[in-house]
Amino acid sequence: MIIVDTALKKRDEANQPIKVGLVGAGYIGRGTTLQIEKHVPGMTVAAIANRTLSSATRAFNEAGIESVRTVTSTDQINDCLAKGERAVTDDPQLLCEAEGIDAIIEATGHVEFSAHVALNGIKNKKHMILMNAELDATVGPILKVYADRAGVIVTNADGDQPGVMMNLYRFVKSIGYHPVLAGNIKGLQDYYRTPETQKGFADAHGLSPEMATSFADGTKISMENAIVANATGFKVGKRGMYGPRCKHANEAVNLFPMDKLMADGLVDYIIGAEPGPGVFVLGYNDHPERRNYMKYFKMGDGPLYSFYVPYHLPHLEVPLTVARAVLFHDAAVAPIAGPVCDVITIAKRDLKKGETLDGIGGFTCYGMIENSSVCRSDNLLPMGLSEGCRLTRDIPKDRAIGYADVQVPDGRLSDKLRREQDSFFPAV
After folding, report:
1. CA distance 305 to 179
2. CA-to-CA distance for 98 and 170, rounded, in angstroms?
3. In angstroms, how far is CA 421 from the centroid of its own chain?
4. CA 107, 227, 208 angle in degrees (round to 5)?
5. 27-39 and 314-328 helices cross at what angle (nearest 10)?
6. Are 296 and 302 in contact (CB under 8 A)?
7. Angle in degrees, 0-180, between the axes of helices 27-39 and 53-62, rounded to the nearest 10
8. CA dist., res. 55 & res. 285, Å (int)
9. β-strand pairing of 86-89 with 68-70
10. Contact 103, 122 (CB under 8 A)
11. Which of 32, 247, 283 is nearest to 160 (CA)?
């Protein structure tokens, strides 16, 4: 987003930085704070909310900010921001209600917790940047309805796969090609990975075992691609996507059924390909002169072409999303209407009546993308709402779990939002 750097420079020169509230001071949150404070003129992290205050303080300290103030009320955080001080709190709702914060980055990865933050932030007219595919894939369309009513932006983030895919999608359209597939490039897919099998990888990279598991067992890619489906109208060709193995993203032009590409467009992925861990978009144009040009540019014979980005840099690029929202009222990734794809809950092993599902990145289940029409007609349980659900019957390994199979915990906002979403967007 080349225009963003110039706009931020103007904010910096006017000494009017965009003030960001950050919820979550884990691996991504700390990196985001460091990026904004050291490398993004015209923007500052004004406050950080985290369950453990020491982690919030650590994020500021690692960015070279030693003086921080702990706040416990809206008056305190408003006073802190008015004086130009940095605030830490264990109550994220203070960030939502603070007068001086322009945008909130939600970076926790928890659905129920984050639903409260997102909804209150929107109601208080804060732009909401979700580094939280789990929430977005589950109730993103209804949050967009609330955001539109409030006149603010709710968006997934540049730098994470959905943002990179959508930027590439928009680029491909802008140069005259019809996008027919938005895809992820993945190195590993094993539905049966658990926090135990992923502990070593998690420790080596500073991740939680649950987060590492969600990457490996396919849940995360399903969440990410559902977000892109909802932002483009693309569907999946089959439950779980095709996911062919290949050596390079250029080969993708020959790996997916053309009839489905041309009918609805697809979200999907390739596995084991270079350049990983990037993303790709397949664009179509059959004009004979265009095909001659593209052959000269070494893009292939056409009429289908592979465009790709060889990397994704989540915490380095999320400040661009903040700037797009605040300065240009532009979303990196947002639903265009109701849900097109959902992520359903699949048993990771044989499960017994009375067991409680441990949710995303756990031992009991994994998430798999499916067209929303199927999810609705079969009354399937969204993976983002699975945690804490108690089984009312035995479920065999690899079977989809439906609402009829579980007892859902009482009183969750995320369930209420999902019911609102289903009511607001009638089943197709």
Report:
1. 9
2. 34
3. 18
4. 35
5. 60
6. no
7. 30
8. 50
9. parallel
10. no
11. 32
Provide the pairing of β-strand 341-347 with 365-371.
Answer: antiparallel
Instruction: State whether the Cα torsion 415-418-424-428 is positive or negative.
Output: negative
3-state helix, strand, coil in the chain (%, to 5): 45, 20, 35
Q: pTM above 0.90? A: yes
Q: And the tokens for 158?
A: 């540049």
Phi and psi torsions of 302, nearest 5°: 75, -175
> Which three-class secondary structure state does DSSP give residue 140?
helix
Sign of CA dihedral 376, 379, 385, 387: negative
Q: Is the separation of the CB atoms in 306 and 347 below 8 Å?
A: no
d(CA 54, CA 37): 19
Asked if residues 219 and 325 have their Cβ atoms less than 8 Å apart, the reply is no
- Six-digit token string for 248: 């390079």
Single-letter residue type at 48? I
Q: How far apart are the first and last CA of the chain?
A: 36
Kind and range of the H or E element at 112? Answer: helix 111-123
Per-residue pLDDT of the chain (428 residues; tens, 9 = 90+): 579 999 999 999 999 999 999 999 998 999 999 999 999 999 999 999 999 999 999 999 999 999 999 999 999 999 999 999 999 999 999 999 999 999 999 999 899 999 999 999 999 999 999 999 999 999 999 999 999 999 999 999 999 999 999 999 999 999 999 999 999 999 888 999 999 999 999 888 878 899 899 999 999 999 999 999 999 999 999 999 999 999 999 999 999 999 999 999 999 999 999 998 899 999 999 999 999 999 999 999 999 999 999 988 989 999 999 999 999 999 999 999 999 999 999 999 999 999 999 999 999 999 999 999 999 999 999 999 999 999 999 999 999 999 999 999 999 999 999 999 999 998 77
Burial of 388 (0-12, 13-18, 19+ CB in 10 A): middle
Residues 353, 67: Cα–Cα separation, whole Å: 52
- Measured CA to CA, the distance from residue 283 to residue 302 in angstroms comes to 9
Helix (H) or strand (E) holding 259: helix 258-263
